[in-house]
Amino acid sequence: MKLSNKKAVFFDLDHTLWDFEKNSALAFEYILNKNSVPVDLAKFIELHVPINAGYWKLFRDGHITQQQLRYGRLKDVFNALEVTVTDELIFKLSEEYIATLPTNNHLYEGAIEVLDYLKPKYSLHIITNGFHTVQEGKIKNANLGHYFDTITNSDLAGCKKPHRDIFEYALRVSGAEREQSVMIGDCIEADVQGALNCGIDAIYFNEHGLEAEASVIQVGHLLELKNLL
């Protein structure tokens, strides 16, 4: 099934093109070893994944600040590990993590191939909830910038997905028509429902095969996008 009449494709970045968990694990391995933090790396990362996701939802919904996000997710992981660390160290690790994270550039399998396939056919854009400087570093270091005509982040738009205004902002700066656009992302709430609420068709990148409504268009691998676009 091909989605007809589409001219603009909007991608989420983290967990969709940019392999956040792999790059995050590498960043933590570096900073924890550098600071001689006495934790089991595998257990730390295992705990961080769901804790970080929970904090991002709170941040996305406007319940916590950026600083609370960056501090709280680390504090909760150390608490779960029953490892006592000072606030000073947590703030230091947080800053080093943010600085180190964009230096890793692993992408999802098929990301470059599908972007090469789509680029001649569509205008390509990014809509991300990530912070401006961090996301810029990821895109630059992963050599993705030349694929995208516009990059919308929550700092620029002044709001976060799934808020309608970030999609409206992305449409405005891209010059794309909503009926001719499609959003691709891994979060059913922020990416898919957010886009649909704005009148933009959406494709759910469901790499983990999570249960979703039958009406939701989805792919389990990025290369499957070739069947839709």
- Which regions contain 5 or more consecutive residues with pLDDT less than 50? none
By CATH reckoning, the class of the largest domain would read Alpha Beta
Overall pLDDT score: 96
Order of helices and strands: EHHHHHEHEHHEHEE
* Percentage beta strand: 5-15%
The amount of helix comes to 40-55%
CATH topology of the largest domain: Rossmann fold
What would CATH call the homologous superfamily of the largest domain? HAD superfamily/HAD-like
How many beta-strand segments?
Answer: 6
- The chain-level structural class is alpha/beta
CATH architecture of the largest domain: 3-Layer(aba) Sandwich
Number of domains: 2
Enumerate the strands of the largest sheet in spatial order, edge to edge or round the barrel. 3-2-1-4-5-6
Q: Whole-number radius of gyration?
A: 18 Å
Main beta sheet: 6 strands, parallel
Approximate shape: elongated
Total helical segments? 9
Rounded to the nearest angstrom, the distance between the terminal CA atoms is 9 Å
Organism: Flavobacterium akiainvivens
Protein name: Haloacid dehalogenase
Pfam family, one: Hydrolase
GO molecular function: 5'-nucleotidase activity
